[in-house]
Design a protein that fits this description.
Elements: E1 5-10, H1 16-25, E2 29-31, H2 34-42, H3 48-65, E3 70-73, H4 76-85, H5 92-100, E4 106-110, H6 127-143, E5 147-150, H7 156-167
Parallel strand pairs: 1-3, 1-4, 2-3, 4-5
Helix pairs in contact: 1-7, 2-3, 3-4, 4-5, 4-6
Length: about 170
């Protein structure tokens, strides 16, 4: 486990990526979210089992490449949860990853925030699906022994101060 690796999770459209971009702007190492990268690279969302495997591959590679204090826009537990969301059994690689590639025990979770939620070409989930994803992520991290720390629904600067104070 790396006590210097902080994971961020939650449903889509809750401000995680905006917050992580802000932290990157402050000079912190940030690992990007994999799902959007996969959708872009594949020219759309691939079939569920392939989508899950590609996300997992990226998340594992990102974890292994990270050094020092790093904030992750999702992680291997989210990849594991994606298998489950598609009603697929997590692959042996996903099971191994959640056991061996550990983040700091306190994980930041962004609650659903309807006021900022928007769909786009890559975020095609409905509001109800976004809420269900939040719940699935919360369950997945809790099931793997993480403590969830809810991000405040506040401006990005306030959220960043909250994260940096909590990560200190």
């Amino acid at each position: 486990m790396s006590d210097r690796f902080f994971a961020f999770t939650g449903g889509p459209g809750a401000g995680k990526t905006t917050l992580l971009r802000h932290l990157a702007g402050l000079g912190h190492a940030v690992a990007p979210e994999s799902a959007r990268a996969v959708i872009r690279a594949q020219g759309g969302r691939p079939p569920p089992s392939r989508f899950c495997e590609l996300i997992l591959e990226r998340d594992v590679a990102t974890y292994r490449a990270a050094r020092g204090l790093t904030f992750f826009d999702r992680g291997v537990v989210d990849a594991w949860a994606t298998f489950r969301a598609y009603r697929l059994a997590p692959s042996p690689a996903a099971e191994a990853a959640v056991r061996t590639l550990r983040y700091q025990p306190r994980v930041f979770i962004a609650p659903p925030w309807k006021a900022i939620y928007v769909q786009d070409a890559e975020r095609d989930q409905t509001w109800a699906e976004a809420v269900a994803t939040y719940e699935a992520c919360a369950e997945a991290y809790a099931a793997h022994g993480y403590e969830l720390v809810q991000l405040p629904q506040a401006d990005v600067e306030s959220r960043a101060r909250f994260v940096l104070a909590s990560a200190a």
